[in-house]
Amino acid sequence: MSKTLEAKKRHAFTRASLTEIRTAGSFPAVIYGKDVESEPVAVEESQFIKVIREVGRNGMITLQVEDHKHDVILQEYQQDPIKGHIVHADFLAVDQSSEITAQVRVDLEGEAVGSKEGGVIQQPLYELNVTAKVSEFPENIPVNISELAIGDSISVGDIRNKFDFVIEHEDDETIVSVLPPQKMEEDADAEQPAEGEAKE
Length: 200
Fold this sequence. Notes:
By secondary structure, this protein is α+β, with helices and mostly antiparallel strands. It has five helices and 13 strands. The protein has a six-stranded mixed barrel. Strands 10-7-9-12 form a four-stranded mixed sheet, with no helix packed on it. One of its GO terms (cellular component) is cytosolic large ribosomal subunit.
């Protein structure tokens, strides 16, 4: 399900108008896509951040531009390297019936049995590449880890058939595992310099 983000048309493109946009807490953006004429807009930064947190980096957004709207996904954005403010964003207009491939966040659900016994959760994959219709694109991929004991793991092949979308990964790629405490201690010891060795 998409979230609505409001935008305003940009009619002026001078440095003064850009300063005015940013002073108002917004940033410039552009909408483009197949059969869609490129459209410059201004988006309020706080609302943008809120919506992206809700739908995810590649989630569906309904961009309401005054008297019309577009179904879009966030294609790219730039941030000020010092202040962290959003400087510019590109929105790709998409057809609800078309397919797209994008990364989707993996959400771990439950508390692993092995974690209660002292094991440590390791998650190599925080996002998965997914192909699906725009209208059916998932906001996240839930993975239940409640039954994972120490030494257990969940791979892509374990969850592939639970969803209607295509996961663009090999079956043997590990999503999450529970490491034994001893293994974690050995890893930590391996990182410590041996006695007599100088620390870099």
